[in-house]
Specification:
single chain; alpha+beta; Beta Polymerase, domain 2; 2 domains; 6-stranded mixed β-sheet; globular; Aminoglycoside adenylyltransferase domain-containing protein; transferase; nucleotidyltransferase; AadA_C
Length: about 260
């Protein structure tokens, strides 16, 4: 298997050659930057900041690039998550300007597609501004606008509010269940304690601070990092209860 850095170098080379006048910056974020990256499990998370708005024509070009990347790195096929956004979209969102923008996105289990650039995306954009690593272009703070922490917090709360519905729509694989638990653990640590942690770190803090959920969080952490299988039975009822209760708890804490 090629290393993550080899894949990222290949991605940078191909994308800068194909989009020379449109690519302003290419940034890696997520567990490869913040810690706890697992080569056989973790995704490569990349944000591409563009001078243009993604549209169907650009989507077709990007589809060719991703197909070529998968061909060259079959062990990483389906594990390179890239979000394409115009700089104008990030600036408008950070300035609270309500304008319609689109992003393009490809992620594990999701084909490359266009979708609205909702305020949800501010969580990712602000994280890249603060913690992202440049593959191409200037350092993130020199290109991306800073996002008001309260605006980022509101976007994260929107995520938390939507998670129970998203879980209903997800396939009930143990992978989706473990991801849901660990993602809510990260939201808990950021909203209650102001800490941007990796999945493993957030799991450890939640296990220590919320012993009533320790058993489920240990299961989710171990499944995610110790090569759990999608043929496992999982814990769908417990996960649904955890997500519903923790979401309600975090939202009630904001209202209180």
């Amino acid at each position: 298997m090629r290393s993550p850095d080899e894949v990222l170098v290949d991605l940078r080379t191909a994308w800068t050659a194909a989009l020379p006048d449109r690519l302003l910056g290419l940034y890696v974020h997520g567990s490869l930057v913040t810690g706890d990256f697992a080569a056989d499990r973790s995704d490569l998370d990349v944000l591409a900041v563009l001078a243009v708005e993604p549209d169907p024509g650009l989507l077709a070009e990007l589809g060719v690039l991703h197909a070529d990347l998968d061909r060259r790195h079959p062990d990483w096929a389906g594990r390179v998550e890239v979000e394409y956004v115009s700089l104008d979209a990030v600036r408008d969102a950070a300035a609270r300007r309500a304008r319609d923008h689109l992003i393009a996105r490809i992620s594990p289990g999701e084909r490359l597609h266009l979708l609205p650039a909702t305020s949800h995306r501010l969580v990712t954009w602000s994280t890249v501004h603060d913690l992202g690593r440049a593959l191409s272009g200037p350092p993130p703070p020199e290109l991306l606008p800073a996002v008001d922490p309260e605006l980022t917090r509101a976007a994260l709360l929107d995520h938390v509010r939507d998670w129970p519905a998203w879980l209903t729509d997800m396939t009930s694989t143990p992978g989706a269940q473990a991801y849901s638990v660990l993602t809510l653990c990260r939201a808990l640590q950021r909203l209650r304690h102001g800490r941007q942690l990796s999945k493993r770190q957030a799991a450890a803090e939640t296990i220590a601070g919320r012993p009533e959920w320790a058993g489920l969080v240990v299961w989710a952490r171990d499944w995610w990092y110790d090569r759990g299988r999608d043929t496992d039975a999982g814990r769908p009822a417990e996960v649904r209860d955890f997500v519903t209760r923790l979401s309600a708890d975090l939202l009630a804490g904001e209202r209180g």
